[in-house]
């Protein structure tokens, strides 16, 4: 806990190294160049220049195992003597840091104990939010905080043409904006990004622009480039991720255009990690589009940016950067630094990063035809770029950011108000004498002097409660405190009565079942003075017992109010608890609390009205009281619907302005998956794409997905692509669709795992089995019966949008009589009457085909006139053509193949 009167530490105290903490959400680049991965390079740079650097990694809920990434991180930073700390929990919070709020609170708890002189943190994720809030509310004498912006949440959603579909996304966007506006210094890695922030109304006019730092290893490659004479084949290397903004679909459209003119010797190389573009696997998208391309396709599932640039250097390839939106310009900058030729779009930060002196091709509009023309021109006349070395200048710019001038760095002096205003603590009570004693005892030991306690009894009728009130009154009179005994009119009315009776300019509500920490009032008063807030709420420690714990280590912070945004304030209480400090002027501006009997959300409704009226609410990100949680409490006994009706009315009557996040949330959460994932949905309509559809349901970078991707590559005649994906030689991959277990392409051969699910539709009395399924490709055996046809169903095994099914049938017994074979397609819920005409009942029927010769296979086909959107059942049937002759009969459906065309 910070001490009153303590001044912030100098950035570099005399006689020791500057202690710098760099916070990051990622410690390896994973094939990407954007966002805060560059902070690892910054940590190395500072360490190389004499600073004592700690890299604080906050992995988040979606990261790979801590052990795996920690090992990777130590490899990355170890050589530079950077200490790596992993922040995946906090002893003050629940074990899992599953929300942006909990991750930010954990960062605050870490920094409170760390003793650093300077902190750098990414804007993305809002990690420094509570630390900056603690500075604003004078709860922590934090070192100067430098925030680095690469790609904020709101920018990413716009660039990827996606609405914010979760409350976490909305909260993150709110936290990021606050961090950009409140940091000691905000650095944007491009002027484009700073301009975007200003266009959104962010108060970041003082934000500076420093190009993103690139590591030394990425840029020292120019000398290894092969000459034009040694190039065996022309090659394009795709520098694009899987997001919409990365432009992978734009590239595919451009390659479609150059196909007629492209040499068959052209190679296209793309890299993982893979993701999903409108629901479709990005690697699958490339393979599917490549079915129309005559050139070779390489897919390397695991390659970071260093590996990609090294690959371009070794092969003499042309890089293609087809971005649709760009906030950093990092890929263009990396190619210019390394002297590697590229074709890129002129979007966003690409345009400001491009350097005419480098001799690179001109940037082009994000249009397929323009990009295709630029690629063709560069292939026909490969550019000979010059390496422009700006790394030294950029590195020095980042080193200079450590020297914050006094006008930028806040004074970290614990504020002491010019006067100590009277604080009126308003405590409502009814029939809880045990809890009341503890609440009053906590008020009596407050370290803040000028305060009064207004105890409002809301009609207690228990004898014990009445006796306690009688005993309290003399002591209260001596202290100038008040006990108001009123008829039972419920909590809102009691609190309002306390406010009207209070003399202080600052009102602190305290529930009678909670207990303030001794320093609570002092912290609240300082927070109000330092922040200029109209209302200050605070964190709390939860407990569940009848008596307040003696040790704060026994409590946890479970509720992390942000103080906004109002868009989330309609959904849940983002503002804080009822135990809050309020300026008296607030009541004259927005009125008092709701006095409706039984209502339980007075704090939420009151705070929402205050925020909607433009009043300033600031949570103190420090627990200032014990919060008792009991099953019989008002909140847990109330109805959520009733609690929210006044909230809705508060927003309705305020003519709430910023409804955009709520509209986005409503649209994103109530739009069908088929519409959001339109690319995946479109795969359903073409049977040949069934294999790609199956890939969509797998985790994009899992081993299973990579194997499936390779399997698809083999099935469409790209064994080299499959081999690269699996790290094998092409000889081990299927060379052609005909070599595969199924028919590949538009056809699917039903295997044993499907056939063994056959279900007998016509049970008849028989000494021998009427239905058998032979393993190892033997097929389905049906035994005809003298009572009529024998039929079996493969339920729902004819896929949607397929056109026909072909069976190979055979009579496999030398003495069998002639048999009729039939093949039908029917709805899964349809029952066929075998005493009637099957052709009239079924959706498709092959007709009865009579087979008299033995051991000769014949094709039998059932086809649809119109494709169906729902799966159908496949029905197999046999019957005697004439009369049975008493000999055994082996009627086989040897092979069943589905066709999409």
TrEMBL record:
Signal sequence interval, chain numbering: none
Membrane-spanning ranges: none
Lineage: Bacteria, Pseudomonadati, Pseudomonadota, Alphaproteobacteria, Hyphomicrobiales
UniProt cross-references to Pfam families, sorted A to Z: DUF6212, Glyco_trans_1_4, Glycos_transf_2
Domain Glycosyltransferase 2-like stretches: 424-590
InterPro entries for this protein: DUF6212 (IPR046184), Glyco_trans_2-like (IPR001173), Nucleotide-diphossugar_trans (IPR029044)
Name this protein carries in UniProt: DUF6212 domain-containing protein
